[in-house]
Amino acid sequence: MNYIPNTDADREDLLKVVGVESIADLFADVPEKFRFPDLTLPPALTEMEVLAELQALADENDDVNHLSCFLGAGAYNHFVPKIVDFLIQRSEFYTAYTPYQPEISQGTLQAHYEYQSMIAALTGMEASNVSHYDGATAVAEAVIMALQVGRGKRTKVVLSSTLHPQYREVVHTYTQGMSITAVGEDAPLGDLRALGDLAGKDTACVIVQNPDFLGRLYSPAEMQALADRVHEAGAIFVVSVDPISLGLFTPPGEYGADVVCGEGQPMGNSLSFGGPYLGFFAMKLDDIRKSAGRIVGQTVDTDGERGFVLTLSTREQHIRRDKASSNICSNQALNALAAAIYLATMGKYGVRKIAELTYHKAHYAAKVVDEIEGYAVKSDGPFFKEFVVQCPLPVAEINSRLLDYGLIGGYDLGADYPELKDHMLVCVTEMNSRDDIEALADALAEIGSFQAEDLEGQDELDDVEEVA
Amino acid sequence: MSYKFDEKARYAKSHEWVRLEGDVAVIGVSDYAQHLLSDIVYVELPEVGDTLTKGESMGTVESVKAAEDAYAPINGEVIEVNTELENNPEWVNEDPYGKAWLLKVTPADLAELDEMMDVVTYEAFVKEEDEKGGH
Prior knowledge:
- The complex is a heterodimer of chains A (468) and B (135).
- Chain A is an alpha/beta fold and 468 residues long.
- Chain A has helices at residues 8-18, 32-35, 47-59, 82-88, 106-123, 135-149, 165-174, 192-198, 220-232, 317-320, 333-370, 395-404, 434-453, 458-467; strands at residues 68-69, 127-128, 156-159, 181-183, 203-210, 236-241, 259-263, 279-283, 295-300, 306-312, 376-377, 386-390, 407-408, 411-412, 423-427.
- Helix content of chain A is 38%, strand content 14%.
- Chain A is globular and about 80 Å long.
- Chain B has 135 residues and is α+β, with helices and mostly antiparallel strands.
- Chain B has helices spanning 31-37, 91-94, 111-114, 119-133, and strands at 10-11, 16-21, 24-29, 40-44, 51-52, 57-63, 67-71, 76-81, 103-107.
- Chains A and B meet through loops of A and loops of B.
C-alpha cells in the first residue's frame, strides 16, 4: 500500500516549478558522503514480527504490576480505579486545546470546574487553577507568582532543604536570569524555625513541603508558626503537599498557606515511567490575578441557565501575551480529568480510607524494618507514608539485590543529601500488602546478613541465594 | 460616536487624563479609552509611595477583550490609590472622570501639565483617532 498521495506526474510538475531535474538535486547542498549513508538496518520485519519483538522487549521491564514497589520520592503507586481510564478514554475529552469557546466546550469546562472545586476543598483554599505540567512546575509557578506580587522589590526566595530536590532544580531553572537569590537549601534538614529566620523584607516567598521529601510530617501548629513568621515579613507562604495525605491531615489552608501546590499524580494517574503527570495549584483569592494558568468559572447564560467559562486566563497568550509572567499556555487537562474522576469516585470518605490504609501500612513497615539487624529507621518525627532507613550496604547494591526477590527498593538519598549516604527512603502505600511488607523485611534481613557474615566471594553468595 | 470629556482635565496621547485639585494631580483614563476597551474587569494599580515616571506603565486596565497598560502622564509620587476599583472595575466604564479615578499624585513639576492636551485639542485628537480606527 502506498501512503504517499502525490503521483509521479505531480512530482514532475512540482520539480518543474522549482526548476530542478530530480528530487536528488534538492539535496545538492548536503555533502555527498552524508546524503545516502548506509544505515546497516536488519532485514524488514512483518507487522506481526515487529509486535512480537516489541512485546518481548516490554516484557523485560520490571514494573509495579509484577513487583512490589517501595519506591516513592514524588511519584506514588496508589490504586487507580478502572472507571478513571474508562471515562478519560471517552473521545469527547480527547483534546489538549484550551476551551476558549464556551459554546462548544461545556463538558470540558464543567469537568475542569469540578476538578478545581475538589482541589480547593482538599487543600482548604479559596481557588484552584486547572493544573500545571507537574508538581515541580507548579512549585516554580508559585515562585514566579510570589515574585510578581513582590513587584520586583522582593527578590529573595526561601526554599526548604527538604523540598523535593528536583522541584528545587526546576525552580532554579525557571528563575534563571531573574536576579533572584535563593536561600535555605543549606539550612538544617527539617528546621522550620531556621527557614522562618530567613524571611525578611526582601523575601518574596518561603516554600516548604509537608510531608517533606524525607517523609517527615509537620504539625499544623509548627506550620502555623512558620506561616506567621512568613506573613510578618510580608512574604507568601507556599506549601507543597502530597494530596493523598490530605485525606487524613489538616489541609494547609488551615495553617496559613497562601499557595498550596504539588504533584497530582497520586490522584488517579498511573506511574507511567514518570509522566505525563499534573501539577495542582490552589491559592487564596488575594493574588489570583498574579497566578499563571487558567481558571474556569460558573456563570449563567442569556437564558439564566448554569454555564461554565474560562474566567481567568488573562496571563495567557490571547489577551496578555507580551505581559505574561509565565509561558504556560497548555495544561494537563486529561490528567486533571483523571484526578477529578478519582476524587469524585473516592469521595471524602474514600480518600480518607486510602490515607488511613497507607498510614498504617507504612507504620507497620517502619516497625518491622527497624527491628532488622543492621537497619535503623531514622525518621524520629511523625510521618505519613515514607520514612528514612539507615542501611548496612550502599542503597544501590541493596536495590539491585531486592529485584531478585521481586521487590523494588526505596530511593537512594545519598545523591541528593551526602549526609544521608547509605540511607534509603522507603515508601508504602495501600498497594503494599502485609505479605509484601514482610517479604521486604525478610529480604532486607538476608541481604544485610550476607554482609555481616562477610562471605568470601560472590559465587558463594549466589549459592546461598539459590538455596534460599 | 460621541464621547464624554472633562473640561478641567488635561490629556495624554495614550488617553490618560490629569486634573489638578489643589496641589494634588488626579489621574484616570478617558471615556474614549474605556470605549475602546469595552467591559472593564480588572484594574491593576501601583502602591502608595511609588514613583511615577512619565511615559512608563503605571498600571493595567483589563477588559473582556484586552489588557492595556495605563501610562503615567506626568512624573510624581503616588499618595492615594482608588482601591474601590478592585471590587468595582465597571466604574471605569460608567464614570471615567468621576468615581473611577485611578491615582492621586504629588506632581514633580506642574509645567508638565501644560505640555499635555487641553480638552479642545484632545477632542479633535480623539475624533481623528476614531476616524482612523473606523469606529
